[in-house]
Amino acid sequence: MANIIYGMFNVATTALITQQKALDVTANNIANVNTEGYSRQRVNLEQNEPVYYEDGILSTGVQAQQYVQRIYDQFINAQIAESESELGRWDAELETLEKVELMFDETSGYGLNDALSEFWNSWQELSNSPDGYTERATLIADTQNLTEVFNSLSTSLSEVQSDTDLSITSAVDEINTLSSEIADLNLKIAEVEAGGYSANTFRDERDLKLQELSALIDINSFEDADGYLTVTTANGNTLVDRANSWELTTNTNADGFQDVYWVSSTGTEENITDDIRTGKLKGWIEARDETISGYLDQLDDLAATIIDAVNTLHAAGTNLDGTTGTASGTNFFTGTDASDIAINTDIEDNPNLIAAADTTESIPGGSENAIAIAELQNSLLMSGGTSTIDDFYNALASEVGSDVSQAEVNSEHQTTVSLQLSTYREEVSGVSLDEEMVDLIQFQSAYNAAAKLVTAVDEMLQTLIDMV
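and the corresponding structure tokens:
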């Protein structure tokens, strides 16, 4: 009889311990209902091993499995990481190109279109009064405005490239930090799970780190049987292997910007810049090296064409001193592209050096050269003789707007995809307060019942002792 009573006492005790563990896990779920990346946990209950008693088997109660189950969908998390990588790329590109778009937005301020228009109009006004000081001074002032706008656009575009270059360097540092943290979490997970316990908290943290890493650079990852996560770049260079991590670094390229390198365990550096396909690094690299560089090339082409065309005509004309531009040694413009285009300082100091007349015209009064230069506005000088200077610039401004629009559309699409995947993950791994409250009541009731069972068994034992 005493053995049966003590067996019942053991059943009640294990029931209390088991229900307490279930309550603890439920409470943890409720506490982390708003914690980013938290995966709902569940205690799985099972019967204790029965014992043989006389001619039968005696049940010994309930126990909680040592390993707390993590409600988790590995496939969904892999999709989220991939989506975050694409989103990171387009967000970075959009962020960069929106800065550029402001430079070409002339709806609320003075821009290159206005400066070009004033420049051509000043030559036209000069042709109406070729020896007028006011017209020559106005032309000089409008030319200064034009060159300053070119210079400013070129400088601003270069500054955006430099800012983007700094973002790339910072991203590389962040990648190194995340890789190191994932390697540390690998070790913690392996050590905990080697003892048969669950490392759910560390696994949730590692998944978040992996998601952050994916947003920066495209990666591949897989987990081995020991719980270690291996992470590689898209082209196969290892970032994390078991408890070890490898670093990325940057080195200056021929254009003065930073390329991304993978550093091997022996210190050898491999340039992986061209192998990066998604993530913020891809967005910044593409914007810096291709998109903005293309804008600068077109802006330089535009400035160089204006310099060459105007200087060619100006050199063939005659100034108020009666000498041609070539004979007097005065080109109208100096410089070679948008970064250094400027009006000749000799002309700034002496407006009479402006060659408004043709060599066949009398001085003063000749205006054919000024008319010819003004007509450059309508000449097909750009794109292999298929577009005017104004059309070429307008096409450039439209290209900027189109690139921004494309980046915005892609960013919005990837944002939608990421939100859908996150919603699905919440449905699988997220905490439902309604469900947890039901479980809380259920486990609490079971705990109270087990406590009453302890009391009942204690009374039975006391009765037995009194009988003896």
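(Above: one complete record from the training split.) Residues 133-194 form the longest helix (62 residues).
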